[in-house]
Amino acid sequence: MLFSEHNLALRPAQYGSIEIVCGSMFSGKTEELIRRLKRAQYARLNVEIFKPAVDKRYDEKLVVSHDSNSIPSTPVDHSSAILLLSSSTQVVGIDEAQFFDDGLTEVCVKLANSGIWVIVAGLDMDFQGQPFGPIPNLMAVAEHVTKVHAVCIQCGAPANYSYRLTKDTETVLLGEKEAYEPRCRPCYFGLNK
Ligand SMILES: [Zn+2]
User: Fold this and answer.
1) What is the whole-number distance in angstroms between the Cα of residue 64 and the centre of ligand 1?
2) Is residue 94 in some structural domain?
């Protein structure tokens, strides 16, 4: 079935869905998001990528993963801006989604219900091991949830926690490489002592 690239109304509703890629820091979330979005681009689908304006670690306009594989993105201050900027797209990618407001879940549902393929990447837990921002609600309403894992620096097991090496207790702490390390459950909670 053919449909216009620029007329959302002609896009069949059954193509709309929500996918979540989540995990700890250094788990390859952004790389997996980029891989999925590039697949969609190869299929000549219109792709738009958004990230919260708060994430300024590397570049204002790029989704940048740790291996510097990147694609252009639009920084937005509030989830509602994603709806406004997605009217002519077929695939929406969202990176660092944990930093968005709680309205992101409703935004993603609206996008998917209008036939858009939504792919969201973010941290599932903060450094205290608590569910992070809108991610848990997004996981509940998504068709597909993929948890990716880092490797525990302490023991080499699959790691799903982001252990903070500094005593700073602010949840949003950028410049992550020095401040965090991935740890498995026993190493994160100190259960092996
Ligand atoms: Zn470990």
Assistant:
1) 27
2) yes
Supply the range of the domain harboring residue 33: 17-148
Q: Give pTM, 2 decimals.
A: 0.86
Dihedral sign of CA atoms 125, 130, 133, 137 in order: positive
- Give 188 Cα–ligand 1 centroid separation in angstroms: 7
Q: Annotated catalytic residue: which of 96, 170, 176, 178?
A: 96
Residues, beta carbon < 5 Å, ion ligand 1: 152, 154-155, 157, 184, 187
Q: Phi then psi for 14, rounded to 5 degrees? A: -70, -10
The answer to the question of residue 110 being in a domain is yes
Note the residue count of the chain: 193
Q: What sign does the dihedral 118-48-5-106 (CA atoms) show?
A: positive
Contact 135, 20 (CB under 8 A): yes
pLDDT at 6 over 70: no
Q: What is the DSSP letter of 125?
A: B
The structure tokens 């837990």 sit at 125
The CA 25 to ligand 1 mean position distance, Å, reads 14
**Does 96 participate in catalysis according to the annotation?**
yes
CATH number of the CATH domain containing 88: 3.40.50.300
d(CA 154, CA 137): 31
> What span, in angstroms and rounded, lies between the C-alpha atoms of 64 and 83?
23
Count of domains for the chain: 1
pLDDT digits (tens, 9 = 90+) for 158-180: 999 999 998 776 666 555 567 89
- In-domain check, residue 46: yes
